[in-house]
Hints:
CATH topology: Rossmann fold
Shape: globular
Number of domains: 1
Largest sheet: 6 strands, mixed
CATH architecture: 3-Layer(aba) Sandwich
Amino acid sequence: MAPLIEFNDVSKIYKMGEYEVKALNKISFTIDQGEMLSIMGASGSGKSTAMNIMGCLDRPSVGRYLLNGRDVSRLRDSELARIRNRQIGFVFQNFNLLPRTTALENVELPLIYSGHLPRRRQRAIDALERVGLGDRVHHKPNELSGGQQQRVALARALVNEPAIILADEPTGNLDTKSGEEVLQIFQQLNAGGITIVLVTHEEDIAVCGRRILRFTDGRLMEDVAVENQRVADPTKVVIEHQP
Length: 243
């Protein structure tokens, strides 16, 4: 079986006037369906650039990116948008919720963009229940804690039933308890078969995955299995409905 994600000598080059900056420099790795792994590195290491390419938000300057065996490196923008909407869920550090809309309406947005109208509201409610927010569907972001807002963002990432969730510093703005809640949900989703990629600079977060890719100055310096995977503390987590 082909890997779900495959980078073949991928480089990303940005032009800054007369100069060229290599954000990624001949990166190669694979990720199998159902893996949960972390990408680590300091600011400027290339980890977020790699995530953007994985998520079809950016393209390689050189090399090939294969998603589920298909070379998506040179697809048209409309095709990349379709892949993003149907196959990939995104979770960001700053939640990126619309402030004047309810949790339910925020989660419905990907379904609206994809033209998926049948049972749209029920699917959004189901996604919110899946992350333990069945009693917060009509709350707006300013009526929710940071951890609850991140769980709304996670429900939004889940609503189109993606094969992959890409999470960029998903606990960066959360306290310890809320961070544990979010990590526990990621691990539950991974146990259900969803591929999870966590981008982080925190070792304690990275070891929640089963493998770590370490980036330095645009290069992949290490690709190692986690010997003792950390499981988010279930005593700190209350989820109403398990996937």
